[in-house]
Design a protein that fits this description.
two-stranded antiparallel ribbon, about 170 residues, 6 helices, mainly alpha
Length: about 170
């Protein structure tokens, strides 16, 4: 008769999940901070990038384009701090769904544009080919990070944890 160690598979998740959460939170924070910072210095270009999708009037597109970098920076800072993580993850998920739908729409309508996700974006020069599938897959990956944080928003080293005073790792008996 052999003695085997009890399975630890189910017992690891409570220990690993908070660290996956912090990686998701900080990774998504970096994405939003980089995206916002790359556009904030040229708000007119950001407006032109939104207008290139041809889904709203020019004036509306330029206002949204000018506001978007500040929204992205705010999401990044909140995630970096771990403040209102579930809410920020929800806003992030919604924004990413809009981005994915916009890129898919541009692709389906045969537009040749740069998404403008990490820079000025807009119409591509003649002969340049858009890269819609990699952009959609990238944003789907970011959406997975936001989804993880929607389900498990508590992470180590966060304002949310400090304010609540609750431990991040759940007891196995609960």
């Amino acid at each position: 008769m052999s003695v085997t160690a009890p399975s630890t598979r189910g017992h690891r998740w409570p220990l690993v999940r908070p660290w996956l959460g912090i990686a998701a939170r900080l990774g998504l924070a970096a994405v939003w901070l980089f995206a916002g910072a790359s556009k904030v210095s040229d708000l007119a270009a950001s407006g032109r990038a939104v207008n290139a999708y041809q889904v709203m009037p020019y004036d509306v597109a330029t206002v949204i384009g000018a506001a978007l970098p500040f929204v992205e920076l705010a999401l990044g800072v909140l995630l970096l701090l771990g403040l209102a993580t579930r809410l920020v993850a929800g806003v992030s998920a919604a924004l990413l769904v809009v981005f994915i739908a916009g890129i898919a729409s541009a692709w389906a309508r045969g537009l040749a544009i740069d998404c403008g996700c990490f820079g000025s974006g807009g119409q591509l020069a003649a002969g340049q080919a858009p890269s819609y599938l990699p952009e959609i897959l990238r944003d789907l990956g970011f959406l997975v990070l936001a989804g993880f944080l929607l389900i498990w928003p508590r992470t180590p080293v966060s304002v949310d944890g400090w304010v609540s005073g609750e431990p991040v790792v759940e007891d196995e008996d609960e």
